[in-house]
């Protein structure tokens, strides 16, 4: 039986596909039932050769595709392909799935081995999706924080970094002089975001122990994974840029605390980026280009989303527990949303009139 370590060693040396849909499949055994490959963007794929498999879970069904693959000198290959989440290589998880399939004798009976292994595949993919979301979230928050630091006056940089609160479970990602900022990041082509509680889309009210918020901006950031060897941003590059700004403005005393906060972000999801030791580690080396940055004024009545008043009339519902998705259009009104990183940053830093 092929061990997890042996599979991981084979995955570690996989070549990247030449381009498009080209890839070189490495079969893990002589039976050529379980194979691994990297596509042209270095994403890991598992190939399960044979008849079409019927996943029982929605997670695996979404990740799996059945296709007939053309080969230059051999008959077409009929195989089920499992595409692992896009960020990073996740080599260890791919090796775990492949080793489990082989342990369940996939070479002899793929359908049975897949049925037995599917719950583990589902858990593995769900965990990767959670980690992927955490990575995207961290990139978006660091992107905006870096832009604020570069645009702000020197004496504002330290307080701005300290005002970032998205690294932990908090009511707001960032608050600056009465403006609340909720940062949402997506790889979709539209401003489509999951909302966890109506507090994420409404200004905090004034209370005895809280000054409240005069306005709330939902900053929608659209990212796409950059092509290899092209200029782009990454978690390490954004962190380094913020560190340079802290040093340049005499706020170097905040560096240790900032790095600790970055390392805490997503730790519960299994990521946790340690800048001093993980600069060259996947998935943190994944690079991104920015498709759009939009700042939505959520006080604008033209923004038609679920509001607290829509929920509180139902006295047996906890308003903060309501989860839903918003689909915000690229244009709501003449000045909403604010478009572009520079304009969004200027709006946040400008004093309230």
Key features of this structure:
alpha+beta; 9 helices; 5-stranded mixed beta sheet; 20% strand; 353 residues; 5-stranded antiparallel beta sheet; single chain; globular
What's a quick, concise take on this entry?
The protein has 353 residues and is of the alpha+beta class. It contains nine helices and twelve strands.
Write the layout of secondary structure elements.
Blueprint: H1 4-12, E1 26-27, E2 34-38, E3 44-49, H2 58-63, E4 64-69, E5 77-83, H3 91-103, H4 110-151, H5 154-163, E6 174-176, E7 179-186, E8 191-196, E9 215-225, H6 235-248, H7 255-264, E10 288-297, H8 308-312, E11 323-328, E12 338-339, H9 341-349
Parallel strand pairs: 7-9
Antiparallel strand pairs: 1-2, 2-3, 3-5, 4-5, 6-7, 8-11, 9-10, 10-12
Describe this structure as you would to a colleague.
The chain folds into two domains: 4-108, no CATH class; 133-349, no CATH class. The protein is built from nine helices and twelve strands. It has helices spanning 4-12, 58-63, 91-103, 110-151, 154-163, 235-248, 255-264, 308-312, 341-349, and strands at 26-27, 34-38, 44-49, 64-69, 77-83, 174-176, 179-186, 191-196, 215-225, 288-297, 323-328, 338-339. A five-stranded antiparallel β-sheet has the order 1-2-3-5-4. The radius of gyration is 23 Å and the shape is globular.
């Amino acid at each position: 039986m092929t061990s997890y370590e042996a599979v991981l060693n084979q995955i570690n040396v996989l070549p990247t596909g030449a381009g498009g849909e080209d890839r070189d499949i490495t079969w893990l055994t002589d039976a050529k039932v379980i194979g691994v490959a990297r596509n042209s963007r270095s994403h890991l794929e598992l190939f399960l050769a044979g008849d079409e498999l019927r996943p029982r879970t929605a997670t695996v069904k979404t990740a799996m595709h059945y296709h007939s693959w053309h080969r230059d000198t051999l008959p077409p290959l009929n195989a089920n392909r499992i595409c692992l989440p896009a960020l990073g290589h996740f080599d260890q998880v791919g090796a775990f799935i492949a080793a489990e399939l082989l342990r369940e004798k996939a070479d002899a009976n793929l359908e049975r081995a897949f049925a037995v292994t599917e719950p583990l595949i589902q858990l593995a993919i769900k965990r990767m999706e959670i980690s992927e979301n955490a990575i995207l979230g961290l990139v978006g928050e660091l992107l905006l924080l870096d832009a604020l630091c570069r645009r702000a006056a020197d004496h504002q940089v330290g307080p701005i970094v300290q005002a970032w609160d998205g690294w932990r479970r908090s009511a707001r990602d960032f608050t600056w002089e009465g403006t609340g900022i909720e940062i949402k990041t997506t790889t979709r082509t539209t401003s489509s975001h999951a909302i966890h509680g109506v507090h994420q889309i409404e200004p905090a009210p004034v209370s005895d122990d809280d000054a409240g918020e005069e306005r709330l901006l939902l900053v929608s950031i659209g990212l796409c994974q950059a092509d290899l060897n092209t200029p782009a941003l990454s978690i390490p590059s954004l962190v380094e840029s913020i560190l340079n700004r802290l040093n340049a403005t005499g706020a170097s005393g905040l560096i240790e605390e900032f790095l600790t906060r970055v390392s805490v972000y997503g730790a519960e999801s299994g990521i946790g980026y340690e800048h001093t030791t993980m600069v060259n580690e996947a998935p943190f080396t994944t690079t991104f280009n920015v498709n759009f940055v939009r700042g939505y004024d959520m006080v604008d009545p033209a923004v038609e989303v679920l509001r607290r008043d829509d929920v509180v009339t139902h006295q047996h519902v906890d308003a903060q527990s309501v989860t839903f998705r918003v689909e915000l259009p690229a244009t709501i009104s003449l000045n909403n949303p604010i478009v572009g990183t520079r304009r969004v940053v200027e709006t946040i830093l400008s004093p309230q009139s």
